[in-house]
Amino acid sequence: MRIMNASPGIGATLTEDEILSFLTNSKLNIHIATLDEKGEPIIHPTWYYFDAVNKKFYIETSRISKKIQNLNSRDLIYYCVDDPNQPYKGVRGKGKARIHENVSENVPLAEKIMERYLGSLAHPMATSLMTNVKNGESVILEITPDYYSTWDYGHKKK
Questions:
Q1: Given 47, 83, 126, 150, which residue has the most CB atoms within 10 angstroms?
Q2: For the chain, how long is the longest CA-to-CA vector?
Q3: Number of folded domains that form the chain
Q4: What global pTM score does this model have?
């Protein structure tokens, strides 16, 4: 995977292991941008699950959401996960999105997202969101990054 320095001259670039750990272990939102019918970006903050083995992001969303409408026309997606606390650190990039509609495949991925952010599938919000997944009203987005552009202001440039 190609890794680039998002802030040359400031801080350091994260290593691949640091990227995988950051994306796997943080509970930050991912901000994704899709392009609408005019080619203008629409940004969506959302929860995600990152599969460090396959190096893919997974996001649960409504089947009729604007991001799904946009991705049905163009599978290009931009993403950013960043820590707003000092020292600033983050990962951003561009990738391809795939929409998963198979409920039996979506349920385990959505469960991982709910457990990550809510701590339990028994949480009322998790119950509500999982109902949408189980009845097919929600789908799973799979993002395959083309590259990682990273920054870590807690380390000096090497």
A1: 150
A2: 51
A3: 1
A4: 0.94
